[in-house]
Amino acid sequence: MFDPTTLEIYRALYTSVAEEMGIALRRTAFSQNIKERRDYSCAVFDKGGRVIAQGDHMPVHLGSMPMAVSAALRTLRLEPGDVVALNDPFAGGTHLPDVTLLMPVVQSRTRRPETLFYVANRAHHADIGGGTPGSMGLATDIYGEGLRIPPIRLLRAGEFDTDVLRLILSNVRGSNERRADFHAQVGSLTTGANRLIEIVARRSESEAIEYAAHLITYSSRLMRHAIRNIPDGEYSAEDVLDDDGITDVPIRICVSIRIKGDKASVDFTGTASQVIGSVNAVEAITVSAVAYAFRCLLGPDVPASAGLMEPIAVHAPLGTVVNATPPASVAGGNVETSQRIVDVLFRALSDALPDRIPAASQGTMNNLTIGGIDARTGAEFSYYETVAGGMGARPGQDGLSGVHTHMTNSLNTPVEALEYSYPLRVCEYSLRKGSGGAGVFRGGDGVVREVESLVPARMSILSDRRKHSPYGLAGGDPGKAGRNFVVKRGKRREISAKGSWELYDGDRVRIETPGGGGFGKPN
Fold first, then answer.
1. Angle, vertex CA 433, rays to CA 428 and CA 439, nearest 5
2. In what helix (H) or strand (E) does residue 448 lie, and over which residues does it extend?
3. pLDDT at site 111
4. pLDDT value of position 212
């Protein structure tokens, strides 16, 4: 048994550790991608590698991070002061720019130091090598996407392994910025470890570990209760990605959700086989999307622990775009396919819970990367950004306009920070009026983002929902599909959803993002 008041205290304590880790990372990072866009996540794990608490960070990171921690603990035996780095999508990672660091939290007062917890963070580095600046261009296998890091020790006994760090930094653009961001990640882990040791010193080791286990059990019980409130039955849906960037063939994603009592099974049988282009998702991404969709059925104060997934079984057939095998390219699986998986999950759940599920949001992250040599400093630069769009309308409310939705919880790069840090100029940043789907409740509008390059550069876009619009629900109209353009000497040319292009001084890239679907049949 446990005391409910004490349990709530521990929920707040462990969550505050993850949140403070995020604050430390944001304040000490060098790249705009981490300190302004907040493209990072932090979490606390028990000594068995089960997640206890997470910060209010990126859903696509948080749901998949436990698999990365498990892979690291299977591969290496960590000693005090060790820090493991990995980004391998086939070992619990997402895509290569997302680098996870893991540190054991050790109680050193005893004669034999004992690991009590683990702390981990994941940050999107603005470049991790590969064929294009930003490491988000089209590739036909993972080797073309950048440096793949299996679980390795980045720090040994509290000191950076200089050979490992030198190897990594020799294979990325903007190595000084990458080095600084790695140091920021390590500092974030140290902050989390110190706070956990303080909790143990104040509350006792046995109680801290006991209530960590209670939080996991409590989360499981709340999820079971939420599933029990879904009518028993089977609910199915499907949707498509526009293409993989190599061919024009739509890529189908199917799901069947079976509810029986307090358990759910989620089956993606019927989904398309993995493809040549980079929209393949690994199993960790698919599990993360399922965790997010069901987490949305709970209240905001439910502990975000390993217990949430205990009553949910996920079957993602091997060799499909929701569980790709090596050496598939996966950069877009994390950012685009994850969004479509959420779309099909919500569409299926809308049959069971029609008064709770929103219409489709924009369904893409509109990934934009621009890189080259900054003429002002002579240094390499890599700018990466995801662009907001429209949220789907909800039962009883319009969708929000110009927001990041579902698997991303990032912000924009402020115009001032972007123009200060890069040889770029923002020419337009506005809402795309009328792009939300009509309905009794209207979908949110997308965004127009037009950026001019002041130097010759290589630009890549990885986007979707350019051919197939975000769906409406209950008779609501779909949102408008997105559009991409290159503007040269004032002449606008529409370009594809995925690819890379050369920009010259004065060229602009213009992205018009999708609107959200409407809810309810419009008058």
1. 155
2. strand 446-453
3. 63
4. 97
